[in-house]
Amino acid sequence: MKKIGLTGGIGVGKTYVSKIFQKMGIPIFNADEQAKKCMVDDANLKAAVQLAFGENMYLKGVLQKEALAKIVFNNTEALAELNALVHPIVKQKFEDWCSLQSTSMVIKEAAILFESDAHLGLDSVVCVSSPENLRIERVQKRDGSSVEQIQSRISKQMPQAEKEELADFLIVNDQVQLLLPQVLAIIKEME
Fold it and tell me: Which residues, in sequence order, are bridge partners of residue 62?
């Protein structure tokens, strides 16, 4: 089974592209969704988060996302500590999920694939790329963030050009180039 990573910065359209791969019969593991799920469901992780960041990170068992985000997005050491707690669990969930798949190829979609070293152990990585103005527009439509908030989030991520350089394949999601032929060409090359 080939394990393929799918990544790209905020607003590039990773999830949209992953749905195209899925329609082609390739199962998708969304690492970002799994991480959020683990933060809610995994008792050991919840206890570790409370130990590291304070009891008030969970009130009546509910993750206080805003409070945690305020801590980790303004402190690189705190973010690294949170990632060190979450990523091993998500990695194991991915391996368990892969063992249940019967296809010759699977995709692990993750925003911080390179930053978390989640690309290690994968056969190749596809990076989705998009012009920054389109990325901002998409995120504004998706969650109503201001341009400044989105630019701040972009500035804290690994530069898009760096992700593209590290990736094995590139999909350009610029509303000019068609996505399906790009996806099909990548699938054909990986078979």
Answer: 59
